[in-house]
Please model this.
Amino acid sequence: MRRKNRIPPSPLPQREGVDPVRVRLPPDGPWGTVREYLVERLSGAEPGVVDGMFTAGQVVAADGRAVAPDAEYVPGRYVWFHRELPPEAPVPFPLGVVYQDEHIVVADKPHFLATTPRGSHVTETALARLRRDLDIPTLGAAHRLDRLTAGLVLFTVRPEERGAYQTLFAKRLVRKEYEAVASYDPALALPRTVRSRIVKERGVLAAYEVEGEPNAVSGVELIGHRDGLGRYRLLPTTGQTHQLRVHMNALGLPLLGDPLYPVVADAVPAGDFRRPLQLLARSLEFTDPVTGTEHRFRSTGVLEAWSSYATWAGQ
Model:
């Protein structure tokens, strides 16, 4: 039996809580040098950026030594480097920690903060912040919340245990409860369970429902209502992208502050944090797969449209 290729550990430390980029050279291709491959791989970079990385010794091999620009292309070889990151608008809200032990960290994420580095959000993410604040470079996310959604996120401390916690979510063994604020419709019978098939296409901002076998199931309950607004408890048993937002919109109750449903709004300028999506991951319940402990965590977050609608609406 052929041995699985072992990935060597990174020779570079994290930078601002962000891992270096690891690249494995493809098994075949027309490139004669490592530089030629990276120039093609990083074709979106500004002219001269890749050459500058080699000149500065920022591209390194598994032993930590700088790779020369004329180094021979060796299929399967690994190289590492840190990409230069553009400035990010700081998310001006605290990232709380509701629980921490030697296995997990449960964070209370604010609106507008991405869970993990992706696209233009890299250092201003919950994962990067926690790695810096808690000094736990091995921290990893067991699941993700949308950037615009606030509330509880589970992180793992030990990489070798991450799979066990991720499996809880994959097998739907975590009970998740959300709260949301939307308009109130007295004619809509609640509670109810919404089932549909949701599709999210790559490169398309909004997900949508199609005919077919349901892949998304959400329980919807009304907690209270006043001044034409409803406060809702949402209980998803599946985890499709934007599931709760799509289901509430399908009921005629799009969430307040939602820039995608029912209509995709103009892009919000970076640094505009005035109207957060009124969706909060309120609680997580699960049996710890490592310790056997029964966990129940609850966010202390507040949905502003419910607590102070006049102030929120005037922003």
